[in-house]
Every structure is written in C-alpha cells, then in structure tokens.
Request: fold
Amino acid sequence: MPLRRHSGPPRPAILRSLAALGAAALLLAGCAAGPAATTATPASGGTLTYATGFGEPTCLDPHVGGNMPQALVGTNFVESLFSQDADGTIVPWLATSGTPSADGLSWDIALRDDVTFTDGTPFDAAAVKANVEHMQDPATASSTAILALGKVTEVQVVDPTTARFVLSEPDSALLESLAQTWLAMESPTALQRTQEENCESPVGTGPFVVSSWTKQDNITLVRNDDYNSPPAGSAHEGPAYLDEIVWRFIPDSATRFAALQSGQVDVIDEMQPDNVVAAESSDQLDVLTGALPGASIRLELNAGYAPFDDEKVRKAFIASADVNPGIESLFFGTVDRSYSVLSSGTPFGASYPDDFAIDPDRANQLLDEAGWTGRDADGYRTKDGQRLTVDFPISTNQSIPAEQSLFEQIQATTKEVGFDVELHPLDLSSWYAALGAWDFGVTSAIYTKNSPDVLRILYHSSNIIPAPSGYHPNNAHVSIPELDADLTEAGQTTDADQREALYADAQKILSDGAYVLPLYDHLQKIGYGPRVQGLSLLPTLQIPTFYDAWVQQ
Amino acid sequence: MSLPTSALGAGEPASPRGVGGAAGDVEAFGVGGEASRAGGSGGGIRGAGPDGSGGLAGTLGRGSGGAGRGLGARGPGARGFVGRRFGGLGALGALGVPQWIALGFLVLLVVAAVVPWLLAPGDPLAIAPAEAFRPPGWGHPFGTDESGRDIYTRVVHGTGASLVIGVAATAIGVALALVLGVAAALGGRVVDFGVSRFLEVLFAFPGLLLALLVITVYGPGIVTSTIAVGLATAPGYARIIRAQTRSVASSAYVEAAVVLGRSRGRILGRHILPNAIAPVFVLVTLGVGQAIVWAAALSYLGLGAEPPAAEWGAMLFAGKNYVATAWWMTFFPGLAIVLSAAAATVLGRALQRRGPR
Reply:
C-alpha cells in the first residue's frame, strides 16, 4: 500500500520504522528497500493518543474565533466544501464543483447529495447558507472565517444541491478560503443550540465525533461509523480505522516529547528542533513536516504607536536585529531563514534579502537622525528623557522555546545600538489582550491561510479595526493607500501574472517601509511513535488527518 | 523582688543558653515550627499562651498607673536577648565541619551577590550563537546555553537575584508576621480572634498557591514574586510570634516592669519584642533557604524573573527544553539552588540546636 507522505518541502524518504525493518531484514533480503512495515494490512480498532502543544481551544467550533488549536482538533469532526491537493490545486470535497459567473460576482457551488451530519441532519444548500450566516453573525465572534468571507454578501439556495455565493466584489481566493477548517460545515440543527453547547460538541460530517471534553485534560473523539466523505487523496473509503482519539494538552514541549518517547502518547505536534533531529535519528519515532501556508514566522513592528511609528526607528531595529546566527544554532538545520512575509508553501511570495541586511552603523545613524541621541546609564538610547523601550509580548503557546531564544538574541543584538526590548512571555489570552490594546512595540503572530490573500488580511488598513472576536490581524498597523489598492485588486483578479505583479509590489511596499521582519517558515512538525501507521497531513493547512491512520495492536 | 534578679542572672553573656523567658518559649517555638510545616492544624500553639486572651492588655493597663518606681530594675528581657545574641556568635567556635562548609558557602554566595564580577568578569547576557550548547570544559567551566551564553557567569550573576529575593521575601514575611502576631497577642480578644482566624484561612492554602494568587493579581516579575513569597511565609511566622509574645507578656519580668511603671511602649519595645522575636531569627535562617527555593520555583513557572535574566529558576526553565541533550544547562543552576538552600538549612539547624533551649 503506497503511503501518502507529507507535502511541503521535499525531504528524503524516512523509513517508517527501522526496528520493524531490522526484524524483517532476513525475510526481505534481496527485496528493494521500501517502507516494508507499512505494507501490513490496516487494522480497525484501537485508541490513538494525540498531545498538542498549541493549547486547548476555548471553543471546539472552529467558526468561533478561529485559531490553530481549533483547526487541529476540528479537522477530525468537521469537513470543508473544498480541499487542496499537494500542489495547492482546489479539489472537491463536500462540494463537487464551483463555477463563477462571468462578472465574478457570484459563484455556484454544487454539493454532494449523499452526505449526512452525524446528528442525522442532511447536508444541503440550506446547510451551507446556515453555516455562512453563522460565521458572519457578529454574535458568533468569528475572526478567521468572517475575514475570509468579507466579500460574501449572502448565500442563496438555488436548489438542494446548489448554493450560490453572492459577492460584493470578485474574490479570487474564495474557494481556498472555503477549504479551510475554520469555514467547515456544521449541522444547521446543531448551530441552533446555544453557542455554549455548540462549543462543547460541534456536529460535522467528519470521520470522528466529539464524544466528551474534559477541560484542561482531554477531548475524546469516537469513530463515525456512517462516514462516507473522505477527502481526495485518501487511502481508503468508508469509516476510519481508529475507534477513538484521545486529544490531550501538554503545553511543555520537553514533556510532550518525553511522553512520545515513553509511549504515553502516540502523536505530538509543535516539536522542538532538537527533538525533530532526535526523532529522525531514532528507530522508534518518525516526523511529518510541512510548511504551513500563509505568513512566515515574522516580527510585526507596531507602526501605529511610538517608537515604531517612525520609519527610521523601524529600519534601525531591522538593521540591528541579527537573526541568522540564531536560526543556524537554535534550529539545528530544520528551518531556513526567510526574507518573505509569505511562507514558502504559499504562491507569490517575494524575497528582498537586501532590505534585511545587518548594519549596526547604519542603525546607529538612523537612530541619531530620528532624535534618539541620548544614552542612559544602562546604555539604552533616550529622547526627551524617554528610554527607547520596545515591549515584546510573546505567546508561549505560539512561539516554541527555540523561537523564544531567538527573540532573546534579537533583544541582545538590538541592545547594542540602544534598543531596550522587553520580552514578556504570556499565555494566549493575556497575549491576545496585549495585542488587542495595541500594548506592544513588536510581536510575533502566526497567521495560517492557504492563499496569498493572507497579505490582505494582515496588512490592509481595514484590518486595523478588530474583528468581532476582538483580534485585529493588522498588528503592524500598516495603513498605506497604495498597498490597500494592490491587495484589493490582487484579491479580485484571477489573472495569475497580474496577481503576481500586484503581490510583488505589495510585498515591496512592506519591505521598504520596514514593517515586518521575516524570520523563517512556519513548519508543522508532527512526531509519531512506532504504533502509528498511515498518518498524513491534509495539504490545505498541513494539518494531520487520522482518517487513514491505524495503530498496530 | 526576687524575680528581676533571677532574670538578670539568666541573661548573662557567658551563658549561651541564657534565656530570659520561660521554658514555654521553647515549647511554643517547637510546636509553631511543626504547625507551620504541616501547613495548618495549629491547635497546639493556642495552648502555648498561658492565660486567656486579653489578660495581658489588662495587666498593662493596670500597670501603667500603678506601683512606685526607683527599684532600678532593668529590663531583664533585653539583657537576656542581648546575651543570647552574643552567645550565638560565641558559639561559632563550636561549629562542626558541615556548618563551617555551609558558612563558607554562604560567604561565597554573599561575595557573588555583592561583587559578582570578582568571580565572573563576563557579561551574563552576552550572546554568542556560534558557541551554543558547548559542554563544560576550558573556557566555559559550566558550558554554554542555547544562545552561547556562559552558564558559569550566569550562575554567579544570578546569585544576587536569588539571595535578594530570599532575604527580602523573608524580611517581608517576618515584618508582616510581627505586626499580625503582636497585634493578636496583645490586641485583646476580638483582635486575637480576627487575626487568628485570618491566619487559619491563609494556612488552609499551601504557601506557594498563595504566592501564585498574588502574582496572578499583580503580574509576574522579581518584585512581585519577592512580595508574594514574603506574604506566603508570613502566616507561619505570625503564629510563632503570637505564641511567643503571649508567653513573654505573661512572664514575671514583664509583670515586674509593669509594676515599676514603665510605659507601654517601653515595655513592648525593650522587654516583649526582643524576647518574642529571638527564636524567630533562627527560623529565619531556615526560611531564607526555603524562600530561595520558592523564588526559583516561581521563576521556573515563568512567574518570576523575565527572560533572559540570569536567575537560577529562569535558567532551569530555559534549560529543561534541552535536558536530554544539554544536561549542564539545568544541572549547574539546579546545583546552586540546592547548595544555597542546604547551606542556609544546615546553619539554621545549628543555630536552632544552640538556641533557646
């Protein structure tokens, strides 16, 4: 049985389990090398334990808010209208096709007629309409979904298997948006419950069903025996193999890896770079990696408030923040330095390495020109008695320890020219609060979206205003009319050359203005133990899928 | 008037066991110590005060207007206290080898805290990514961390933070305990009831939990965690001080001072407080060790020193991510915590054994 490997950057094929290979070596003598252990027939049954480091969702319904913890667990019980293959091409899932009108102002989405939600509600055009209305309802407090649907004015039920999306302006990223887990389809019957209830046990069409959620401990998912809608590229049909998935929360990465090594859990995410290296050289453990689409891991300089409202100060920061030595030593060769705001898994990314050259002399000169000429007793620059302080809230859920160490190194190198960067490691909700109040000078925020349209979400001036969830994606507080125009136009046109030119121009504007310091690609790093077979990443968001997965008893 | 005389005699410097107070001191102290370790169930202490609450206040009130002066009786309590202190210092000569080692280590710690650059001239925050994860060896006796910072330099420079937190937190705890304990002992039935119940409520929480509560409200940082640890240790000290104060206040020499017409402030300041506090000083030595461990624990939980400060608990936290590949990142800061806590405890125990018994 051919094993579906990860997509993303090409990696040498890792033998599935050297131990099993070794045991089978005598039998296999003379055979071509291959993932022999996986040729075993998948067995139904068993429980798989997953330990996530992304944090516990506050609500399991991915429409509400819309972050990575929700997408990771949600992929098991909700499904989207579309999916993407390894090349990023849109492929049908719950929808069978999507056809735009000539003016691009409406899309007819044809739907499968044989899918049922796990509460018995049929999946049809009315369900799609109810879902879009739910996502766009301010009371849902969505951020990701409502922003992705920003151009959708309404959904019309043409017939039970055709939903018409009516747009205010053409949207070249509509189908990509609909492929995201945050815009997945939920039972309209279940959506009528209170938000509290729906957050506890959202109902989808997925291969698993939410069985229970013990807060701060685990979510238990059980198999959906009536499942019939696997995404394209799946290795089998019908229900999943696993009886049950126990979804645990282990925020500490060292503990998470130790739990994987000892066999307490079968799969972990957010692996530390040194653990990736250790797992890859181990004969017991394996790693799935994929570049998450959307923005790269980057620092956003808050240009709306002092001191980074001054372009010279931003440029001085970027010219003194030495990143490369840290990327080499902290990440053990698992990531490459990025000079692009977009991740390598996203089309139309443009790199401008020269804008990020390290030049302390120039940084000093820029700060002098900007009026930060004084120095206090600790060596920090001052202006009118004020120290050049840059608050840096760090989400300990989103930034792995190696990344936090990288931030410490940035703190050290920018100190040499007189910046006082103050690092504040915060839990997710405190971090959101700091961002929401614009109470930061610089921060690092991940944003996963399977389209270059992520640039519009992150840097269009309209997204300085918070979404209903309270989150404003434009953390750099970028407000440039030409940039807005580029991003709007690129989001409307379907002409690839024109989009490329517009996105390149937009990225050049960002780079010239020194709003963002790209660091490296955001990689999904999933480690798994010897029991686990058939695990793969869904290409859309590089999220692990357990539909084909099974455990050796 | 035989009482003052005997008290004076007992306070002579030559006697290391020169105790002004009654034997009840020691009992109360012992019980208090047990109760504070057990984190609750303080019934034993309440028996330590020989008579009912409020009795003392009454005594003082009567005394102030009372008997004639001129007997010239000095505060035997103060003498006794001074004598005991000298006795304690004099006892240094009788320290055993472990105590000397502990004392030597503490002196080294103080040197590291006050003039760290004498022991480690480098910059504890200086990064050198090219030299990350170096194991202990020449040039880097304790190895380097993930950013190439020298761990020896960081451990030495981290001493100040740990020691200051340990000492300051204990001082805060004792100061607060003094107010609460004395108020409970001398403030009358109502105050005693209020303070005692309040302390019992605090005792119901493990100390560290109390510290976490304070930090949750006021945000993480070195100052907050110092205050938090101080507040968390206060109830234990407060109980001991209350029991001590009551015992001392009902002693004969205080009664004598009252009879002699000394002012209330003078009786409190010269007779009661010094005698009531003395045993606590021994406990404080033990407490500093505990406070260092707690402060490190808070930093380890990300609630104390913020990165990349050279603080032992924070270093432990950073190192634990690499415990499988770079053991030295956790081993040396951990060793520093263990040794300082152990040294403070060894000395504290020695003082305790030589103390008022």
